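Work Package 4 report. The design task specified in the project plan requires that, given a folded chain encoded as structure tokens, an amino acid be chosen for each position. We show below one input record used in the internal validation round.
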């Protein structure tokens, strides 16, 4: 026998009634009246030509046929619920999805991850650096960190930080012993990547004219260019935030000359059509912000976003994504911790 689609609701009502063994309790759970539940059950009994419940003064009891149908219906509905849950993970379990550049993730984001994990040990992040994950269709990442001028079609952007470029090289490079002026850098083996600004721009900013650049090793990823510089292959024009870990470990040293202000900056981006307030699963941005990126500069917002820089916590980029903003769970909001919300779980620090 093939069930008509119109009777599928009756099957769902029957499964609830069988689970509770009480029509009134099932009606309460389903937000229906007891008579409506009884009507659905009788309709299903009429279609199947069998009695599913034995009715008595104290309630109802499944018949043998009713028990068989209840078991099958419960299993089928559970399978459907499991598949639906995998298609759309619950807000409480879906990890925030962040997409970013491989170089920024390796040198800037990951070094700040331990501090974030200490502050929020129960939060898990899904960090993607593959180019395929940079597309923000439905089901794509919740947030991204992009390098550009702040304008991408269909995306809302929030300024994160500016950048600068300056030359670096391995301290083991023999030519560094006699290198004292910017124009001498042109005599070194030079490395370049696919950045929009290169050596010619830097030499122009350093007021070095008429320089003839030698043939260079070219890399399509700044991570590889930086590693090549560490191994002593040559000097590279490094971005400030990417070079910082190497400078701190003395694997690279900064060469003479100015820092060139980058044309582009880093931005937090999210789909303009995806309203964060309506999609709580995207605690995505990971949380309480500049505590993760630069704790001394701002304890209120890990990303030191526009709203927090002006003391306007309700405009915090991250707070709009936090999945814990429901009234009963506000105290667990990972984006508002330490912000102007009356929560003072974290000590304030000064610059």
């Amino acid at each position: 026998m093939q069930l008509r689609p119109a009777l599928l609701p009756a099957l769902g009502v029957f499964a609830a009634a069988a689970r509770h063994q009480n029509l009134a309790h099932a009606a309460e759970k389903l937000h229906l009246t007891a008579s409506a539940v009884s009507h659905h059950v009788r309709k299903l009994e009429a279609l199947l030509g069998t009695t599913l419940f034995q009715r008595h003064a104290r309630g109802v009891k499944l018949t043998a046929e009713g028990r068989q149908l209840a078991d099958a219906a419960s299993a089928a509905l559970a399978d459907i619920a499991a598949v639906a849950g995998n298609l759309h993970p619950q807000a409480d379990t879906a990890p925030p999805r962040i997409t970013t550049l491989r170089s920024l993730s390796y040198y800037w984001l990951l070094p700040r991850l331990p501090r974030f994990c200490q502050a929020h040990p129960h939060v898990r992040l899904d960090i993607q650096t593959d180019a395929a994950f940079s597309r923000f269709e439905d089901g794509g990442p919740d947030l991204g960190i992009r390098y550009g001028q702040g304008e991408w079609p269909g995306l809302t952007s929030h300024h994160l930080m500016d950048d600068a470029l300056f030359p670096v090289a391995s301290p083991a490079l023999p030519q560094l012993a006699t290198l004292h002026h910017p124009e001498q850098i042109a005599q070194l083996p030079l490395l370049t990547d696919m950045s929009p600004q290169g050596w010619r721009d830097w030499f122009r900013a350093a007021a070095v004219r008429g320089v003839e650049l030698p043939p260079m090793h070219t890399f399509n990823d700044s991570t590889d260019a930086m590693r090549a510089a560490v191994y002593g292959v040559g000097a590279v024009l490094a971005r400030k935030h990417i070079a910082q870990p190497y400078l701190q470990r003395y694997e690279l040293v900064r060469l003479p000359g100015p820092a060139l202000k980058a044309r582009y900056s880093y931005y937090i981006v999210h789909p303009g059509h995806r309203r964060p307030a309506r999609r709580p699963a995207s605690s995505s941005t990971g949380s309480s912000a500049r505590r993760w990126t630069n704790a001394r500069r701002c304890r209120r917002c890990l990303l030191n976003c526009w709203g927090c820089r002006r003391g306007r916590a309700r405009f915090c980029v991250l707070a709009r994504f936090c999945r814990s903003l429901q009234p009963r769970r506000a105290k667990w909001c990972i984006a508002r911790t330490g912000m102007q919300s009356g929560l003072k779980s974290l000590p304030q620090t000064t610059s």
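The domain at 97-162+264-332 is CATH 3.40.190.10 (D-Maltodextrin-Binding Protein; domain 2). Validation will be extended to a larger panel in the next phase.
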